[in-house]
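Batch job 17 of 40 flagged for manual review because the log was empty.
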Amino acid sequence: MEKYIINGGNPLMGEVTISGAKNAAVAIIPATILCDEPCRIENVPNISDVNLIARILQNLGAKVTRVNKHTLDIDPRPINTCAAIDDSVRGMRASYYLLGALIGRFNQAKVALPGGCNFGLRPIDQHLKGFAAMGAKCELIGGAIVEAKCEGKVQGAQIYMDTVSVGTTMNLMLAAVKAQGQTIIENAAREPHIVDLANFLNSMGANIRGAGTDVIKIRGVDYLHGITYSIIPDQIEAGTYMAAVAATRGRLLVKNVTPKHLDSITAKLEEIGVSVEEFDEAVLIDATGRDLRRCNIKTMPHPGFPTDCQPQFVAMLTTVSGTSIVTENVWDNRYQYIRELLLMGANISVEGRVAIVDGDSRLHGAPVKACDLRAGAALIIAGLVASGTTEISSIHYIERGYEEIIEKLQALGADIKKQYVPDEDVAVTA
C-alpha cells in the first residue's frame, strides 16, 4: 500500500507541462486493432490506464513496443482473437472500446465488462443498441461478458443516441470505420478526444465527417494504413492544475495545452477573479493576492463544464468566500468524495445532484481515501491548501490518469511525497 503525504500551505508557482490526453489514448490505442499496418502513437501519457490497455492488446496478440516514455509502436496484424475476457480487461472502465474495435475488425467480439472508478453505473445499453443497428446480435453472458456477432460484415446504419454519451459515440465510430456502407450517429458527443479519435482514424484512411458536432457520418473503408500520430494534450489534467493554483493562490504557466479546449474551465476561473492569459499552446494562471469570489457550476457535455473537473473545482471553492452551488448533470454518484472533504473541515452539503459549498471553512489535514480518479485529484488540492498533514490512500485511482503528479507538484513548490506503507501496518490500523 502507498499513500500521498501532503503538508499544505505552499502556493504553486512556476511551469507545468501537460501530458497527452488519457481519454483520447485509451480509445486510440484500441483503435489500432483496426489498422492493417503498424502504427506509432506519440504523446502517450505514461499512466497505469495506458499501460493496462497496451498490455491487453499484447494479450490479444499485438506487438507493442515502448519506444520511449511517451511513444508506443503497435503492430496489430498478429491479433488473431476477438475475445478479451481476462482480468486485465475488467480492470479499466475504457476497456469497452475493445468491443467496437474488435467488431470493426472481426465482425464479432467477446469482451469482459469494465471496472475502474466507481462513481455510478456506466451502462452499455446505448453501445449495444448501436451495435444491434449495425447487424450485431449482442448477448450478456453471466452479467460479466458481452458477446456480439454479425452474420457477415458489419453494416452501416442510422443511429440516434437516446443520451449524449462519449463512450458510445467513440465505440460506434470504431465499429463503423470498416462497415459496409454509411453510418450516421445522431445526438453524438462532441468532446475533444472524440475529434482526436476521428483525426487518428482519418489519418489512416478512414472517412469520418462531423466529429465535434452532434451528427457524425462514417463511410466504411476496406483498408487502413499505418501512421505516426500525436495525441492531443489532456484538458482535464490542465484543468486540475488550474484549479490547484487557484486554490493555493499561486501563479502557473500551464504548457502543452490547446486553450480552446479549456474555454469552460477558463471562464469559471475568470468569473471567480483569477487572471487567465492565453497563448498559442499555453495558459498563464495568476491568483496571487486575489480575493476570489463564489460561483455556480453546472456540469454538461462538451462544450459545457466537464464533469471530470467538478471534484477539483469543489475542492477549490472551499477556499473561496461565500456559498457556491455545484450541480452534477452527468453522473448520478459523483459526490462520494465529499465525505472525505468533510473530514478535512469542509462545509459542504449534498442534495441529490446539487452540492452547496461554504467557502468560509478552514481545511485541516486528515487521513482520507481516494474513491475515484478525479476525487483523488480533489483531495490533493484540498491537501495543498489545508493546514497540517494530509494522508491520501488508494492512490492507485489517481495514478490511473495523472502522469508523475508527485514530481510535477514538487517542482511547483508543493510539499508532497509518496510513502510506502507495509501490509502489516495496514492490517493493524484497519
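Reviewer: the log was empty due to a logging misconfiguration, but the result itself is present. DSSP finds 15 helices and 24 strands in the chain. Unflagging and moving on to job 18.
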